[in-house]
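queue> holo job accepted (zinc ion)
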Amino acid sequence: MKRIFFNLSVDTEQDLHSTQYTGVTQGLPLLASVVEKYPLLPTLFVTGDCLENYPKVFQSYKRQGWEISLHGYRHLRYDELNLNQKKGHLQKGVTLFKKIFKATPSGFRAPQHSIDTDTLQLLPSFGFRYDSSFTPRNFLQVLFFPCYWKAQLKHAFTKNAPSRITDSFYEIPPSAFIFPLTGFPLSILPLFLFKRLFDLIYFLTPHNGIILFYFHSWSLIPLKSKVQKYCPPEQFLKKMDQFTAYALRKTEAITLEEYTYSLTAVANKKKPK
Ligand SMILES: [Zn+2]
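queue> job finished
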């Protein structure tokens, strides 16, 4: 049987269309109550403002073995910042992270997947080991952000597996097959269809590959959103729990940080001495 890894990540930010942090204060404890049932440590991509407001909360998750990585200093599109602004935001994010965790963040996911070539090239120089922003095979993303359709369509045709960018820096993109393996399809699709989406992605993933499932911190709390009319947060949590149990029957959980280290170790072993 092929060995496939599984990662659950959460884009952790201000609540949708709000300046509140209920997803952090009430949503993440709900996530914790689910993941403690499994041998699963999530990866949180956290914005700088969340870290500034709740440093102790994230220190505590990190002590429990969860991975904390960066989701931008502020929740702004990186493809709309100029080069100096990109550098400035990355520097501020990393400095803040170091102050709280005494370590450099390993991973980065650009807000709204707004990664571009300049940002990708800057990340290793700030000590990042991987980026997880590209959206290969994800055509829903193109519809979600029509103003950025060109960039998102380009992303949809990028490599749909982890790829080495420099000696010790990787791109590990979230999983998709037309529909992404994320919170929105989990909300709107019946669970058995979401499981079939997973099965299809599993089938296409090679031995030692990884499947990335993610949602937002605010998916776990009540919002004024149309999606929650179909799927209120209690139901989302239940589906997320059932899906996680299903995914872990066929895969091994791993944080993206750990997965990146294993890729780097394999690549270094292959290097001619
Ligand atoms: Zn985000």
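queue> Residues 41 and 66 are 5 Å apart (CA to CA).
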